[in-house]
Amino acid sequence: MWMRDIAQTLAKVFKQQGYNVPTTNCPNPMLYIAGLFDKGVKMIIPQCGKIHKFDNSRMKNVLGIEPRDAKDTLIDMAYSLIEAGYIKRSKKYKGPHAAAEEAQEQEKKEAEKKEGEESEEKPKENGDVKEGEGDDLKKETEGETDDKAEIKKEEEEKKSEEKKDEKSEDKSEDKKDEKTEETPAEK
Q1: Per-domain residue ranges for the chain?
Q2: What is the pLDDT of residues 138-185, one digit of tens each?
Q3: What HEC string does the chain produce?
């Protein structure tokens, strides 16, 4: 991975969070001129243009370790530098978890869009109903069943009240009968 690739990877994530990540290349002759005045740049000049190759196949085969993706590692390193205070936090800084959550939300939205496109393209088969088409009918039938249930409850309440009234009337009539029966016997 070249330095420019590293800068572009970091810029994708951190420019949105208020960090300026330079992604332009400096031509080699400019490095030589800058190396005359800056010792730090002079140390980098011997590394320019060299290709370093590393092989991790033995680590994978012998130890069974799967290395992480270089882009994920770079982003995690940058977040840890910010969290530790080596890089000043910007006002728009969201933190490592916020970026992961946003990425998951974007993936969900993309998946929903794809599902929506697939369902629209797919023709109706055997009377299948697309989402939203039968909802009005369902709402109407649900409303009717709710109304019917309320009417039934009211009717049952009325019947139970009538039964209570009848029972209370029967009891009062029984008491009247008892009183009338007791009065002649006493005389």
Answers
A1: 3-118, 134-181
A2: 555 555 566 777 888 888 888 888 877 776 666 666 655 555 555 555
A3: CCHHHHHHHHHHHHCCCCCCCCCCCCCHHHHHHHHHHCHHHHHHHHHCCCCCCCCCHHHHHHHCCCCCCHHHHHHHHHHHHHHHCCCCCCCCCCCHHHHHHHHHHHHHHHHHHHHHHHHHHCCCCCCCCCCCCCHHHHHHHHHHHHHHHHHHHHHHHHHHHHHHHHHHHHHHHHHHHHHHHHHHHHC
